[in-house]
Design brief:
With 667 residues, the protein is an alpha/beta fold. It is built from 20 helices and 29 strands. The chain has a seven-stranded mixed sheet, with helices on both faces. It has a seven-stranded mixed sheet with strand order 11-10-13-12-14-15-16, with helices on both faces. A six-stranded antiparallel sheet has the order 24-29-28-25-26-27. Strand 5 and strand 6 form a beta hairpin. Helix 9 crosses helix 14, helix 12 runs parallel beside helix 13 and helix 18 crosses helix 20. The chain is flat. The two termini are 20 Å apart.
């Protein structure tokens, strides 16, 4: 498990000391055991050897019948059973009266009336079924009944998807499972998706099929009694068939665990999420969670699929310098404006590129307008030159021809030029078609995605660039800063008891975490001496106890920046050193902190260190009910940071905060 074990033997007596302090290898091995357990438990869901549809009917309106038909037509290779005591056959499959009549069964898809679900689950437990997908609708998955179902499933080692879901799709080399009643299923691919809405799932699968976005897996979670987005993230994390994960989330469950898992997964493969948000501080915290974890946040389902099309079919852009190639000036201008709005920049074309365009009689401005007279030779030469330009990271190609019959040679020219430079992404708005267009397929597994409008291509590229920038950042480490004494802090907290601390007690508690405070005026500092002069600047810091995400740090500026711009940045604890640095640099007022022509820089490193110490305080003291530092004075470089005004309140330990994210010991 990674804990430090020490043995000492003397006179036939063995003394064993087991230090259960949270160390790096403890966290790593705990995560590894968790992933292994999740993968083992979900194997019957995604790779079952045998399947039964309970409630499969012959009626055209039978949900169970539709599920059975999809499984049979989808090519599942193992035994498929139909459970229906009132019919001899359903879709050519001989029925049985009960799950108990099946010798061996990995997965049961339950489509019976909701009142019969507990009985069927009981039969599944008696038959040692590994997993059940409860499609049954009008079933209350909350309250006592939901808790009872969950306890029953877990008590018998059975994973439960649903209830109130529309099923599961799994496409693997060893499995083709279409366990859903959806009339449309997408083609095979490398995209996996979890949706917490059953009706929306139908639209998702239909849309994915229409735009040619291939899926390796799809799970409709429904009420998420047992299997959660956290479980699915860990399954798809190690799934070699999945290269991109999409999440439609209404709720998070354990949001802090989600943050930790998602951050780990996003390093290996992109994660795109849509969440409706709350429209208040929780929405800002949600954005902070996604930023920390490297999750691409899409505001709409359409935006999510636009981005998925790009990431599933094209390489990540090496930078944000974009070239636009068009045969119509208006759409080219729209694309340019959309690129700027998405955080991209129009590339400055190199002299060689300008010369190639000039030789072809084309203007050397970006966007490059070939005019409606541009033919396949023009497209091939111009696109080839743009992709060869070292100052161009990606190209958006627009083709809106006056004569549709000219599209085939134009498409081939675009494909040929893109294939010659496979390390740079090319996106298109081709004939206003959407999705994977056969004319723009570069290889059997790679295509140039086409968007109905050029703005969608720019938005997708913007998300891809931001994600790639996140990947380039150095990995952060959670560590306890030097000079922190958690043991001493615990003694003080027990002595102080609940309530708001006066200046002396607050100063003493902050000092145990190496946080300097001057709460009684100049000269009354505690901890290391901190010199503050007129070149200092002030910031605010508070701990927000978010009802969804738990403890959150909120760093803000003071004065006009706070009033005019709402300059406030959120991060979820525990902070890595990278999180703390980015938190400071994300302030709109950061250029002032870093120094301007008429104002010297302040000690940014000290502010980063202060954030790490407050994060350690939050994680180590579950009794911390409130911490509001209205003024933190940050001096010139080397002078440090000091808290000059704070409100600190202790409460009884909150049960939800007892199990903290562990931190790493100081090397």
């Amino acid at each position: 498990s990674g804990y430090r074990v020490e043995f000492d033997q003397e006179g036939g007596i063995t003394h064993l000391e087991l230090a259960v302090d949270p160390r790096r290898q403890v966290l790593a091995r705990s995560d590894r055991r968790e992933r292994t357990a999740i993968a083992s438990s979900l194997h019957p869901v995604f790779a079952p050897r045998s399947v039964a549809v309970v409630g499969a009917g012959r009626s055209a309106r039978s949900v169970g019948g539709a599920v059975l038909r999809n499984i049979l037509n989808g090519g599942f290779a193992g035994p498929v059973h139909a459970v229906n005591p009132n019919a001899a056959q359903v879709h050519g499959v001989t029925t049985v009266a009960s799950v108990l009549d099946i010798a061996e069964l990995d997965l049961a898809i339950i489509t019976v009336p909701s009142a019969d679900v507990p009985r069927v689950l009981g039969d599944c437990a008696e038959r040692d079924v590994g997993a059940a997908i409860v499609v049954s609708t009008e079933m209350d998955g909350s309250g006592d009944r939901g808790d009872e179902l969950l306890r029953f499933a877990r008590g018998h080692g059975m994973r439960l998807v649903g209830p109130n879901c529309m099923g599961v799709i799994s496409v693997r080399p060893d499995t083709r499972l279409m366990a859903t009643f959806s009339p449309t299923v997408p083609p095979p691919g490398r995209v996996a998706m979890a949706s917490q809405s059953g009706p929306l799932g139908l639209a998702v699968l239909d849309h994915a099929a229409r735009i040619g976005l291939g899926f390796s897996g799809f799970v409709s979670l429904g009420d998420s009694l047992d299997v959660s987005p956290n479980d699915l993230l860990q399954w798809w994390e190690t799934d070699r068939n999945t290269g991109l994960v999409l999440l439609h989330l209404d709720t998070f469950g354990n949001a802090r665990r989600f943050s930790r898992i998602a951050r780990r997964v996003a390093v290996k493969k992109p994660v795109i999420a849509v969440h409706p948000g709350a429209g208040d501080d929780s929405d800002a915290v949600l954005g902070a969670l996604f930023t920390q974890a490297g999750i691409i946040r899409a505001r709409t389902m359409q935006e999510m699929f636009d981005t998925a099309l790009m990431l599933a079919n094209q390489p990540p852009p090496p930078g944000r310098r974009i070239a636009i190639l068009t045969n119509a000036g208006g759409p080219g201008s729209l694309a340019a404006g959309a690129c700027r709005a998405a955080g991209l920049v129009l590339a400055e074309l190199a002299d060689e590129t300008v010369q190639v365009l000039a030789d072809a009689g084309r203007p050397a401005a970006n966007p490059v307008d070939l005019t409606p007279e541009g033919d396949e030779d023009d497209y091939h030469a111009a696109l080839g030159a743009l992709l060869a330009d070292r100052g161009v990271d990606a190209v958006i190609v627009l083709f809106i021809p006056p004569l549709v019959e000219r599209s085939a040679p134009i498409a081939q020219a675009i494909v040929d030029a893109a294939a010659a430079v496979p390390n740079k992404p090319v996106l298109a708005s081709f004939l206003s078609q959407e999705g994977v267009v056969e004319e723009l397929r570069v290889t059997p597994s790679r295509s140039i995605p086409s968007y109905r409008f050029p703005e969608a291509a720019a938005t997708a590229l913007g998300h891809a660039v931001a994600y790639n920038n996140w990947l380039r950042l150095p990995g952060g480490i959670i560590r306890t800063p030097k000079g922190v004494s958690v043991a001493e802090a615990r003694i003080l907290v027990r002595g102080f008891g609940p309530g708001e601390l006066d200046a002396d007690r607050a100063t003493r508690l902050l000092a145990t975490f190496g946080i300097s405070a001057d709460l009684d005026g100049p000269g009354a500092t505690n901890g290391p001496d901190v010199e503050v002069d007129d070149d200092s600047q002030e910031v605010t810091l508070r701990v927000v106890d978010d009802p969804i995400f738990g403890p959150v740090l909120a760093l803000g500026s003071t004065g006009l920046h706070a009033k005019l711009y709402g300059d406030l940045v959120y991060r979820i604890t525990p902070l890595t050193d990278r999180d703390a640095r980015m938190m400071v640099e994300s302030l709109r007022s950061y250029p002032i902190l870093a120094g301007t022509a008429d104002r010297p820089a302040v000690d940014v490193d000290a502010l980063v260190d202060l954030l790490l110490r407050v994060s350690a305080l939050v994680e180590s003291i579950p009794e911390l009910g409130e911490l509001v530092a209205q003024r933190i004075r940050v001096g010139p470089p080397g002078a440090g940071a000091i808290v000059t005004s704070v409100r600190l309140t202790l409460t009884e330990p909150a049960l939800a905060r007892v199990a903290r994210e562990a931190t790493l010991e100081t090397p």
